Structures are given as structure tokens and as C-alpha cells.
Amino acid sequence: MALTVVPSPLPSPPDTGSPPAIPVSATLAANEALDARRRRGEPVLPLAFGEAGLPAHRVLRTALARAAGFTAYGPVAGHPELREAAACYWSRRGLPTEAGSVVAGPGSKALLYSLMAAIGGDVALTRPSWVSYAAQASLAGRKAHFVRGNGGVPDAGQLARTVTSARADGRRIRSVVVTLPDNPTGLLAPAAAVRALCAVAREHDLIIISDEIYRDLVHDPDAAFTSPAAVCPERTVITTGLSKNLALGGWRLGVARLPAGGIGPELRARLLGIGSEIWSAPAGPVQQAAALAFTEPPALAERVALSRRLHGTVARAVARRFAAAGASVPAPQAAFYLWPDFSPLADVLLARHGITSDEGLAAVLLRDYGVGVLPGSAFGEESGRLRLRVATSLLYGESDPERHAALNAADPCSLPWIAASLDRLAEVLAGLAGG
Ligand SMILES: Cc1ncc(COP(=O)(O)O)c(C=O)c1O
Question: Which pTM does this prediction carry?
């Protein structure tokens, strides 16, 4: 039986002193290094940046152009029609939602940071988890505690132990971030892991921040999806956006779904306070286009379905190249990420390249082969484990016609530009491993 059902009130924000120095996000930094190589005319294989790599749908471009006249700042929480559409989006997924529980922001990233700042206390994160959570916690003056987990959800037993031992050290972990489905692993945590996490969250009075930005990109559209908001709605905040399912990263639009009662109103007030002082409101025209997107008209639902199919097909093809070279790779279940483990090749990597760490491996791939990937340690993983985070979505093409062709192809891996990238990857990995 749950010990605490209603989350306790939010603590007052601490005096955090001087701000920590945060380097440019690892993903953006790798992307810049690849761009520099490209400008020098050197071959590159861009597998670092987690951008969806697809064109904006025509329906959305038109909606955005039509909304150019929305020049007013508008409400901090977002236009009412956007909040209503986002509420219906969640309601259609079995999570009844009122527009009043929705807060929009300029990307879910800004909302995630603001949530950590607004909730207070320390933050528990999964090891591994998306690069920005730990950096954001630090920026918000929060201590991050990594807990080993799988598919974006920390192991419940380890989370409970971490909360207890932090408390013994005088620290209060107040929130836990989960990623469903997950970046960097490309996996979707099973319902049992989510339920176990929720039980610990109740017992230890944690607020769950559930980042569900990849929810609509689970490769198997019939796969069961359990949001913590379905299990403990009173203490779960969901964030999502349009950057991944509709490939609109540059439009910068995210939404948060707060608990309807309990801590919800206070959290909303704090979130709006932060938003009002930092971004004022999301861009007006983008909100109008996003309102349309969240109603999921058939043309956009079809686009998401095609994207899901493409992401799955290419991710699996890339995974096969890594496996053929001797790395161990969990089969991707969602989005466009792989999490290959090079430890089976540790001896040969050391002997041939002097590689002892994931950073060393990523550096050799970039310097000697023009392959951009991210080291697992950027995601909180131990460096010696030789894990990489591979993003496969920038292989779809360099122009909109190529990307459209990839979206519509029954066999995208046979398109010449994707086939060439797959061949090049196989060649690089064979070369790296001494084949
Ligand atoms: C897990 C995760 N959450 C959030 C984001 C950022 O989303 P947005 O573009 O809505 O800020 C990303 C982008 O890479 C991500 O991978």
C-alpha cells in the first residue's frame, strides 16, 4: 500500500549562489565539428545529432504562414486553442486532460528545465539518460543523482535506496525524470518498470517528470505504452512537443501536462512565473500551427506513421551494421537511436587504436573516419563501458526531395544515398575493428 498518496507541498527555492559553468550541449558540439569537416570537403557520416531529419508537412507550413499575424505576446501558458488541442491529444491517449492543466513553452527542453527549477530539491536521473537533464539540473541549482536503469526508467529498488541514502546525507530528492521511450537507448521501458517506479515515487513522495517526446515514434504502433501519469496522475508531469514526431525542432514548441489537482496549481503558478520572466510566451504563429498539429488531422497522422516506419527501418539497418562488426546492440524499439556496446571489441580497439574509453572511441571515429557519434558518458554512462549513442535520422537525405523519397519508400535502405551511408558505415566499422 502506498505510504504517501498526496504529494507534499513544494519546497521554497534555495539560494543557489553563483551559476555553474555549462559547456555547449555535447550533441550540438559534435554537430558543429561535423559541419566544419563538411565545409572542408571531407566525408562525414552524421550520427550524432538527434534531429528528426524530415521536412515540415505542407499542412503545417501553410498553417504557420497563415498565422503570421499573431504578433501579440499572448498568455504565458499558451493560446487557449493550443492548450485545448494538447489536452485532447492526451485525452485520446487515455489520459483525460483539461486545457487548464496544459502549459506550453518554447520547446519541451525549456519546460523540463523550468520544472526542475520549480519543483525544487534534488533530481534523480536514469543512468544512462538524455544529455540535457543533468546539465539542466545543475543550471537550476539542483543536484542530480544517477540511478542505473533501463529504457529511460531507473530501477525502482535502486531509486529507493538512492533516495534513502541521500536523505541520510541531508539531501532531499524531490523529482525523478523518466524518458518514455528513451533517448539514448531507443528502448521503451515495460509497464512493470513504470509501475514499480510509481510505487517508489509514492512511497518517497517524488514528483515524476515523464518526458514523452518520442511517444508517437514507438516503431510498433500496437506496442503497449504505460505513462506514469496513468498510474500516479497526482504526482506526474508529462512533457512532449513537436520536434520529433513532426520533425519541427526548429519551431520550438513544447507542452507540459500538470496534475489536475494537488500540487498541479502551485506547480503551474511557479512554471508560469519562470516562463513569464524568461520566454514570455511561445512564438504566436507557431502556437497556431501547433494547435492544428495536436488535433492530429489525417494528413499529419499519416505523416507520423510514415516517419515511424522510416525511423524503425533505418535504425534496424544501422543496428545490423554495428552487430556485424562485433558490437552488441539492443534492438531499437523507438525513435532513431541506437546504443551499441563496443566492449566485445575492447581488446582490438586497444591494440589497434589505443582506445580505452567511449570518448576515445568517439574521437577516433570522428578524426579518422568522419563519423560523428556521441560517447555514452555524455549520457551519464561510465566511460570505460565503450557505449556510443548513435542517431540515425540524418541519413535520410540532404534535400527535401530526398527526405520525401525516404519517407515514402517501402525500402528506404535501397535508396542510393541511404545505401551509400550504410555501406560506408559497414566499411568504417570493419576498418575500426580490423576486418
Ligand atoms: C529526450 C529528449 N527530450 C527533449 C528533447 C528536446 O525537445 P524540444 O525540441 O521539445 O525542446 C530532446 C531532443 O533531443 C530529447 O531527446
Answer: 0.94
